[in-house]
Amino acid sequence: MSKTKAVIFEIGATRYGIDIMSSKEIIKLQTITPIAGTSTVIEGVISLRDKVIPVVRLGRFLGISEQDYTEDTRIIIIEINNRKFGLIVDNVCEVEDILDEEMQKLI
Asked: What is the pTM of this model?
């Protein structure tokens, strides 16, 4: 059986995972600059090492009721098709091996 290493995180009371190969780093919540006229799932942009990174409120994207930001809130920086995005999550738990059969792809 094939396994994938995944970063496990929480949004509300539900745990999710993302392939560790897609995640580039995990950072603490920082100042997010809103962008007028964008989708409601886009919280705004951050500056990370002189690069502008769009940030998505993942709970909003998934239709999950939002919680206020806490000291556990994190931004997972992911890269898909050579483009970086930040995903705001309530908490990052661990890195875990997941059986490929148990994985559901969102993206």
From this structure: 0.86
